[in-house]
Amino acid sequence: MSTAPPPQVKSFNCPGCGAPVVIRGFATTLSVVCGNCHSILDAKDPNFAVLQRFQAAESIQPPIPLGTRGKVRGEPYEVIGFQVRTITEEGVDYSWDEYLLFNPYKGYRYLTEYQGHWNDVTVLRTLPEVNASGARPVAKVNGEKFRHFQTSQARTTYVLGEFPWQVRVGGETTTCVDFVSPPRMLSSETTGSETTWSLGEYITGRQVWQAFQLPGSPPAPVGVYENQPSPYGGNLKEVWLVCALFLAAMVGMALFFTTFARNEEVFSGSYRFAPRTGGEASFVTDYFELKGRTSNVELTTRTDLSNNWVYFNYALINADTGQAFDFGREVSYYFGSDSDGAWTEGSLKDTAVVPAVPSGRYYLRVEPEMDANAAGVWYEILVKRDVPSMSYFLIAALLLLLPPVFLAFRSMGFEQARWRESDYPPAASGGGDD
Amino acid sequence: MRHPFYLVYGLALLGLVTMAEFRGWSLTSVNEMKDVPKSIRDNPGAYRAHYAFYPRYFGGK
Fold it and tell me: Does B24 contact A357 at a Cβ distance shorter than 8 Å?
């Protein structure tokens, strides 16, 4: 920037107020605005005839001053014009700023700004293909499909600098049709029988500030703009892809453990417990061997309960080391019928998994308990070593799905906020509100 | 990946579930005791378990 030559300008005095007026676009400038008295002057007229004088409620100082030079897409440009354009929706005015940038070799381009959202806009040389047959028109250009976002009537409400067209404030409105394919936006502006197409690309305020080396920081963007790229879009696809890979890895791991787990029955025994007979209820089983690495032990208890319960105090005891795993299991099974029909509650069977049991010689100490008046119960104990369990894989799969599902909801919320401002607001939003 | 958090999160989950499966971790509440005397085999009623405080419910409609 510091090495760039100073901008070449042509200046004259405003015929309306005498204030100095500058022309930077030379031959292409058709109208120029006096910033002092708001007279729009004919730049092609030798006397700079006043074409229109507009009343401005306030004098607007564009955040990027006229004459500022910067680099856009690697090319130097100078800000030569500024206009405020306004649409009215349901009686409310919405205004955005447009900066006209000029490079004598590259021509014109625009920067637009609405509530902190910026677009770098160039006029299209090709005619987009518009298909308006469906519920939502689409436009195609350079192979890219754009969805219709909004059609509005815009008017110019403030101007500064110079323009390569006969600019006017107020008066004639332009039909603006926006199509979006974030981060790009395709727009047409129709005045009378003339239609101009332009292609915009969303850029951040920080990029604009850097391009023009503006002091301070850009205003923070408000809300979601029509072609603002979703912060979740690309990332969401990656996250779903990684999620699918992890899920596949987990399925593979589950298959591996299911295939190669010992899943070996190491003990079984059937017993009868009758509390009425009295005596010592507890007993120990024969020894059994738990082989292999430290792994789980699954103990299944099957009973023939009938409208009753039984509680088992179990201890899996290592005969050699004295290490014991204590746990209690209740089995209860009730059934009957009432006004709602037949019902059952509980189960005749219970399964417990003892975690991380080292290999060795073990036995079980079993102490059943029942209601003292119960007739008794037959039960069977089955002990299995290294039983594969799918529960951890299911829990892990659910935990794995949480972030992408969360991101998907955030992404949906972002898109809903985008389309709330369009001609196609999501059903729940009840139309644009701001 | 732009945000490696999910990659780390997924790898941690995969590692954890593999370890849980390999070591045979379980959600069953178990009390581990050491040095249970060998005489328990001769006198099972003398065993003092630590499960007595577990909540027990014997239901029925």
Answer: yes
